[in-house]
Specification:
By secondary structure, this protein is of the alpha/beta class. The protein has helices at residues 21-24, 70-76, 95-102, 116-126, 146-154, 176-193, 224-234, 258-272; strands spanning 5-6, 32-35, 41-48, 51-53, 57-63, 83-88, 107-110, 131-134, 159-163, 170-171, 205-208, 239-243, 245-246, 287-289. The model is unreliable at 1-5, 14-37, 278-288 and 292-296 (pLDDT under 50).
Length: 296
């Protein structure tokens, strides 16, 4: 049995245990303290009627003008997660207001730069959980899959990588040209870095917070997923692919451009072949907006 998972105690209903928010202010999270060897309490969050988890899970959602899609995204998020970090890319619609209505304890990070990579870097820096999950705001990813990612991590993986092409995965959103490009680029990464990926350019991943020290990120665009996938391999981290289904974007139009962003991915692959880790930049400071009543 993993040190991070335990069955429910006899006669205990994990879904009715006291709220962890009553003691640590984490809002919708629930848990019951159990002693660690040094006497400190460990809080377990109910995952189902027979399973609980100790590590707090942060979910990072980069969003720009996604007010119409957020209800679908938040509806699938499990109630046992520790926090939701929404990175707002200067939205001109009601993205922030809708997020706060859907998840009152949401932590809003106001993105200062531009691009998905920049947004994720800012979101990761704001997380307080031991496990970080990154998920898109367009409704294409199912938050109910988070349990599969978390299970892989607490079972020993450092990085849980979503794959639309692993057995059990799928996609409704990729054109033929994007599938071909993803396959070619994936093969290039496997050949150059000794990986065994079935998917490369997918934004649904999860990892232990400590992995950020090994894969310090320094890109701003959609190539961020590729950069992460390369650097976890170079750092010798244990990676497990998670079958995931990608659905069509519900509302709006994606900012992804197959040729432009494919070339950026290719440049990252070529550059990473000879980049020493000591030259990587660290994320810059960011500004966080907390829910009303929680500011110090």
């Amino acid at each position: 049995m993993s040190a991070f998972l335990r069955p429910a105690l006899p006669g205990e209903d994990p879904l009715s245990v006291p709220s962890l928010g009553d003691t640590e202010g984490s809002g919708r999270t629930a848990g019951r303290p159990h002693g660690l060897p040094d006497g400190r309490p460990r809080y377990y969050r109910p995952v189902s009627s027979h399973l609980a988890i100790a590590p707090p899970v942060s979910v990072v959602i980069p969003a720009m003008n996604e007010a119409e899609n957020l209800p679908y995204v938040f509806r699938t998020l499990p109630g046992w997660i520790h926090e939701v970090v929404l990175v707002d890319g200067d939205s001109t619609d009601d993205t922030i207001r809708v997020a706060r209505e859907l998840w009152p304890d949401v932590k809003v990070v106001e993105q200062r730069g531009k691009g998905k990579g920049d947004a994720l870097i800012s979101g990761f820096a704001a997380c307080t959980g031991d496990i970080i999950v990154m998920i898109d705001a367009d409704g294409s990813a199912d938050g109910r899959e988070i349990i599969s990612y978390v299970s892989a991590l607490v079972s020993g993986a450092d990085f849980a990588k979503g794959s639309r092409f692993a057995n059990g995965g799928g996609t409704d959103d990729m054109t033929a040209i994007r599938k071909l490009g993803n396959r070619v680029l994936c093969a290039a990464v496997n050949a150059k870095f000794g990986a065994r990926y079935t998917d490369l350019c997918y934004g649904y991943n999860a990892f232990w917070r400590h992995c950020l020290d090994a894969i310090t990120l320094d890109c701003t665009g959609f190539e961020v997923e590729t950069l992460m996938n390369i650097r976890v391999v170079k750092a010798g981290l244990k990676v497990q692919e998670i079958p995931s289904h990608e659905y069509d974007r519900i509302h709006g139009v994606s900012n992804l451009r197959a040729v432009r962003d494919g070339l950026r991915v290719l440049r990252v692959i070529l550059r990473e072949r000879g980049v020493p880790r000591s030259t990587r930049r660290r994320p810059t400071a960011l500004r966080i907006s907390v829910p009303r009543g929680e500011a110090s």
